[in-house]
Amino acid sequence: METYAIISDIHGNSLALAAVLEDIRSRGIKKIVNLGDHFFGALEPDVVAGMLNKTEMLCITGNTDREILESLDGKLDKEGMDRVKALLPKQAIDWLKSLPKTATLDNLFFVCHGTPESDDEYLLEHVTANGVFVYNDEYLVERTKHIKERIILCGHSHVNRVIYLSNDKIILNPGSVGLPAYLGNGEHRFAMESMTPHAKYGIVYTDGQSINIEQVHCAYDWHKASDAARKNGNEKWAQYLLYGRMPKELRS
């Protein structure tokens, strides 16, 4: 039996990452896949960089990882980015530059952050004026028909989901380690909400034929993380971290 831990969207939350890595270690899992968005946010990007440097795992880049590098080149200006760049050591920046956009693993996994083609689009979710909906089976089968691996890993939405397709493929979003909700802006204003403040990750167990998947919710001191975000001047993040959903006053 092979066992894999799937993590994503740490967003600089060292307390959440510590809880997840400890849970992974306690289960004796050696293979970790990291779907990106490592550092950006209102918390401790430098601490997370040190933790990742000490932990063996397969990593790819996410949209905010790309945005950090674009900001260094003067191609992007984003609220909170100057603080993150000031805290990140050069080694972490160089590491981000080395990461691939997608990867494959053990002839079983296709690994992406958003979609196979874009780190800034959702593979599973369709954002509409009436809310966020999961795409139907027919769309997802067509969308992923070029991928030969059976399990497709994606993050970006921060909402943990397992979708079993009619062609026997599985799409797994492990949820976010470090940011359980956020308010998005695009054609429509929308909320991504996991509905709990827990640090989240996924586990895949396989014997080559059967595949078992476990979605894990790890408790950690989210009150401390929320207080840190508030002290760093980000009240929205403080609320997201504390509740895992969008308080009414932040929806306007």
What report would you give on this structure?
With 252 residues, this protein is an alpha/beta fold. It has a single domain, classed as Purple Acid Phosphatase, chain A, domain 2, CATH 3.60.21.10. The chain has helices at residues 14-26, 45-53, 63-72, 81-87, 90-98, 137-143, 222-231, 235-243; strands spanning 2-7, 31-34, 58-59, 103-105, 109-111, 125-128, 131-134, 151-153, 161-164, 170-173, 181-185, 189-193, 199-206, 211-218. A five-stranded mixed β-sheet has the order 3-2-1-13-14. α1 links the parallel β1 and β2. α7 (222-231) packs antiparallel against α8. The longest helix is centred in the first third of the chain and has 13 residues, at 14-26. The relative contact order is 0.18.
Biggest β-sheet: strands ordered side by side in the sheet: 3-2-1-13-14
Number of strands: 14
CATH class value? Alpha Beta
**CATH fold-level assignment:** Purple Acid Phosphatase, chain A, domain 2
The percent range for strand residues is: 25-35%
Instruction: Show unreliable segments.
Output: none
Q: Give the fraction of residues assigned to helices.
A: 25-40%
Largest sheet: 5 strands, mixed
The mean pLDDT is 95
| Form type | globular
At CATH level 2, the architecture is: 4-Layer Sandwich
Measured between the Cα atoms of the first and last residue, the distance is 49 Å
Number of helices: 8
Q: What would you report as the Rg, rounded to the nearest angstrom?
A: 17 Å
Secondary-structure element pattern, one letter each: EHEHEHHHEEEEHEEEEEEEHH
Number of domains: 1
CATH superfamily, called what?
Metallo-dependent phosphatases
> What structural class do you assign from the helix and strand content?
alpha/beta
